[in-house]
Amino acid sequence: MTREVSFDIDAVENSLDLVERELDAAAWSHERDGFNSVHCIAPTRWGDLGGVFTMRDDPEALFFSVTLDVKPTPTRRNEINELLIRANEKLWLGHFDFWPGDGLILFRHTIPMKGRAEPESNEVSAVIAAATEAVERFTPSMNYVIWAGKSAEEALEVALFETIGEA
Fold this sequence. Notes:
Layout: H1 9-25, E1 29-32, E2 37-44, E3 47-57, E4 60-67, H2 77-90, E5 95-99, E6 104-112, H3 121-147, H4 152-160
Antiparallel strand pairs: 1-2, 2-3, 3-4, 4-6, 5-6
Helix pairs in contact: 1-3, 2-3, 2-4, 3-4
């Protein structure tokens, strides 16, 4: 079954141009594909992570996700789920998801586009900043749960511990 595309091609191109400008400003490398998407590399202190911005027409939205380089073991999945619930409570934008079928943890956010041609540049830059902050803050706690056998509560304490000044 072929689905009729309802969005304006120029609006998609303008939106993806805007995404690319914001990725450039954040120093994320990127490449556009032929499927209304921009694939990107998110540089974090825990390594480079793959991400994607995708314009969709049903629902009208700009989707974003970045895949973390963290693989939950089957025995730690319940504790990882608990950690993600608690971490999501601390996020100001976006959320973490665990996809058990693929064994992946992602950071995701959607910018609704209903009734407008393209997102605002500050929306895209906010998503990029929120993803970077969330990944850098919570990746160690995910590893503590998976590899050190810590509880979600113990791992979250580590993620939320902030030092003042420099040693």
